Amino acid sequence: MIEARGLSKRYGELLAVDGVSFSVAPGEVVGFLGPNGAGKTTTMRILTGFLPATDGSAAIAGHDLFDDPLAARRSVGYLPETPPLYPEMSVEGFLDYVAKLKDVPRRVRAQSVARALERCGLRDVRRRVIGALSKGYRQRVGLAQAIVHDPPVLILDEPTVGLDPIQIREIRALIADLASERQGDRARTVILSTHILPEVEAICRRVLIIHRGRIVVDRPLEELKRGGASLEEIFARATSGEAHEAPAAPPEVRA
Amino acid sequence: MRHVLAIAGRELQSLFASPVAYTVLTLFAVLAGFFFLTGVLQFQEYIIRMQSFQLQDQLAELNLNDHVIAPFLHVMSVVLLFLVPAITMGLFAAEKANGTQELLLTSPITIWQLVIGKFLAAAAFVALLVALLALFPGLLFWYGNPELGKTLTGLVGLLLVGLSYAAIGAFASAVTSSQLIAFFLAFVMLLVLWMLGFLADLGAAGGGGAGSDAVGDVLRYLSSAEHFESVVMGLVDTKDLAYFAAIVGSFLVLTKAAVESVRWR
């Protein structure tokens, strides 16, 4: 469903992403970990079509990001680190606008917006102005704009950052819920970046750790934990020094 | 086209949800009323003075188009010089500050659709301002008999000037994430473009070298005020239309490049 082949991104002298390759099968929920500045956001921005890669290629749902960018972008729901919201718009008005941008056909648009409102628990605030909502609710609106066009792939960049513990629990449950949602005949594919390791254990089945622009761990969570070490220890080991664990080949299923 | 309209519609909606639109409309209406009133009073004074001096020839030459409407539209084109940047300053800068640029650039839309949508929103607002302004010369039709054709050409001229300002303002907004900087950048660019004609006149008066005539001609051609002058007097020349089309076109191309430049870095 997501196919990254040798992605690199260079900012002047800095190589932010250095030959990142991985593939995510339909229905997989992947935790994307790494220290700050490791290249998580840059990788996600490449996959969503916000930034072009300096080198390498990527495909979303079979659409190459370079050859067919519009189709690839249509297949992705993206929640950036700061949710992209217009404070002066109403929740419903905003989602309707996003649905138009994402090519949701006119006859199902109202229905799509209603479904996104329902899924994200926003029905009661749908006429409220976004700027007047609490941070937790704004994050929900951010998630709602990511799913309003019912994309097969969801890419979420630190969706629980800056929320209080109760909001974190709610948003986490919502993400788990969205991840298990059926998308036609198969489950939705999700990439979730976070610093909160228990979040990964709660939601994800596979872990990707990126460090200094390279993938250093790519394993199913179960397999990682079989070694007896906690995810925290694995993370610390993978991101300290140069001792890179050779990326293990994941059980690949082609998208 | 659907995307373009969606973007333009949302932009207008946001403009009217913020105080900016109302501030601009109010300022514009107040200034227009003030300049119109002073223009009409001055015209009246002229007539009285010329009558008292028995200057029949000059009196016959006085008319509402050349002595009230044209100067009025002229001064309003100067007012637009700082009001249009207030409308366009948020077009792209606000998206960058909001983080919504990331939504736009990861949506299945092209950058051209984005730029045209934004420009259309600003253009619609400029058209609203000009329509509002048409009420004032409209009053003169009630009490006098100005030429309709000449009046309409003048208004169309003002619309063209406003559209070229909007394209320049859109570009200024696309190069920064600060609305304040976008405003001043647009204002300074418009002011310079407007004053190029004066610069040429100064050069000519200073009696520069042999090349100064050619330079003066180029500067005069580039100046927005020069082209507006001929349109506002009721003369629509393809040369002037081409000028405004070229300004709008080239600044939209620059805007597109500026928006796209996040991807080059």
Proper CATH architecture of the largest domain in chain A: 3-Layer(aba) Sandwich
Q: Which spans of chain B of ≥5 residues are poorly predicted at pLDDT below 50?
A: none
Oligomeric nature of the chains:
heterodimer
Main sheet overview of chain B = none
Largest sheet composition of chain A: 6 strands, mixed
The general outline of chain A is globular
Could you state the order of secondary-structure elements of chain A as H and E?
EEEHEEHEHHHEHEEEHEEHH
Please indicate the percent range of residues of chain B in DSSP E strands (runs of 2 or more).
under 5%
Number of helices of chain A: 9
CATH class of the largest domain in chain A: Alpha Beta
The greatest interface between two protein chains, and residues involved on each side, is: A-B, 30 and 25 residues
Average pLDDT confidence of chain A is 87
Shape of chain B: globular
Helix/strand order of chain B: HHHHHHHHHHHH
The number of helical runs of chain B is: 12
* Straight-line N-to-C gap of chain B: 29 Å
Percentage beta strand of chain A: 25-35%
How big is the Rg of chain A?
18 Å
Residue stretches of chain A low in confidence (pLDDT < 50, at least 5 long) are: 243-250
